[in-house]
């Protein structure tokens, strides 16, 4: 995870350029983020790793993680 995006393991294919809304637990807070999938890679276990680029830099994540 970074202020600009995140890598996430998912259980089904999510197409590149798909829009994503998700919530990230940060300590005792929930941070809502939106972005788009910039890459999607199949894994040997049948899962997928997707790269999400956030629409806006997430200052709340910066404060908690960096």
Q: Walk across the major sheet and give the strand order.
A: 1-4-3-2
Low-confidence residue ranges: none
Structural domain tally: 1
Number of helices: 1
What portion of residues is helical?
10-25%
| Radius of gyration computed on alpha carbons | 12 Å
Mean pLDDT over the residues: 88
DSSP E strands, number: 4
Note the beta-strand portion. over 45%
Structural class: mainly beta
Cα end-to-end separation? 10 Å
Most strands sheet: 4 strands, antiparallel
* H/E topology pattern: EEEEH
Instruction: Identify the overall geometry.
Output: globular
InterPro entries: PilZ_domain
Protein name: PilZ domain-containing protein
Pfam families: PilZ (PF07238)
GO molecular function: cyclic-di-GMP binding
Concise summary:
This is PilZ domain-containing protein. GO terms for molecular function: cyclic-di-GMP binding. This protein is mainly β and 66 residues long.
């Amino acid at each position: 995870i970074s202020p600009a995006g995140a890598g996430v393991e998912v259980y089904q294919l999510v197409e590149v350029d798909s829009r994503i809304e998700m919530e990230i637990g940060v300590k005792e807070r929930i941070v809502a983020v939106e972005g788009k999938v910039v890459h999607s890679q199949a894994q040997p276990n049948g899962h997928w790793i997707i790269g999400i680029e956030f629409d806006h830099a997430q200052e709340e994540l910066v404060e908690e993680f960096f």
